[in-house]
Design brief:
Elements: H1 4-31, E1 37-40, H2 46-61, E2 65-72, E3 81-88, E4 93-100, E5 103-111, E6 117-121, E7 135-139, H3 145-163, H4 174-189, H5 199-209
Parallel strand pairs: 6-7
Antiparallel strand pairs: 1-2, 2-3, 3-4, 4-5, 5-6
Helix pairs in contact: 1-4
Length: about 220
């Protein structure tokens, strides 16, 4: 049985290496995001279309108008996330749908006048990477679209009433905003000491202990 100890240690070290390597790779890609996100006229994938049409009904019922489709070339091994975007002019808020290998998640995004952003995601993976102080990110898993929107609106009110933040009402190019956000986050992460070695911590702690918790001021 003694041989199991080095095998287990080797396995754990490989897991740590692979997670850290994956996180570093993502951050490096996000540092130069110009080619990461591509607007497209249509997406023909049957799985994406099925989920897109289902979500479109909810989006339209809640004042979100479809604004386009895009591919995010951010996944490993050359695969791309298939994405749809909707804009709500009354709330000055985007909602984005991401589809990847049968899985789908959603992100409500509101820009602040100071350049900050509030993001409310349905996936705890949105919490993995740390964000600059003026980027507010929260995630709530296994809840309805209505609940996610309510959580987002509650945090908007919190930012307004307790932090004196103001919502930017201007509709801008969502792809350019995403590229700018990715680059800003990557620059911030690279200022953190030993950031190349924190991927496992971020992956385990952020995903599991920050999920289902609203932002704090």
């Amino acid at each position: 049985m003694d041989y199991l100890v080095p095998v287990i240690v080797f396995f754990l070290l490989m897991v740590i290496f692979l997670i850290n390597h994956s996180v570093v790779t993502i951050i490096e890609k996000n540092s130069s995001p110009d080619r990461l996100i591509e607007r497209v006229a249509q997406i023909d994938d049957a799985g994406f279309l099925r989920q897109f049409n289902a979500f479109k009904l909810w989006a339209e019922q809640n004042g979100f108008v479809h604004d386009g489709l895009f591919l995010a070339h951010m996944a490993a091994k050359g695969a791309s996330l298939q994405c749809g975007a909707w804009w709500n002019a009354q709330q000055s808020t985007w909602v984005l749908m991401y589809f990847y290998k049968g899985k789908h998640f959603y992100d409500w995004v509101t820009k602040l006048t100071d350049g900050g952003v509030l993001s409310t995601s349905s996936s705890k993976d949105a919490l993995i990477l740390p964000s600059p102080a003026h980027y507010y990110v929260q995630a709530f898993a296994n809840v309805s679209f209505d609940t996610l929107l309510q959580k987002h609106q509650a945090s908007i009110n919190l930012l307004k009433n307790q932090a004196g933040k103001a919502i930017d009402p201007q509709k801008t190019d969502v792809i350019q905003e995403m590229k700018a956000a990715l680059a800003t986050q990557a620059v911030y992460i690279k200022t953190l000491p030993f950031w190349q070695h924190k991927g496992l911590f971020w992956y385990v702690y952020h995903r599991n202990f920050l999920v289902n918790k609203p932002i704090t001021i």
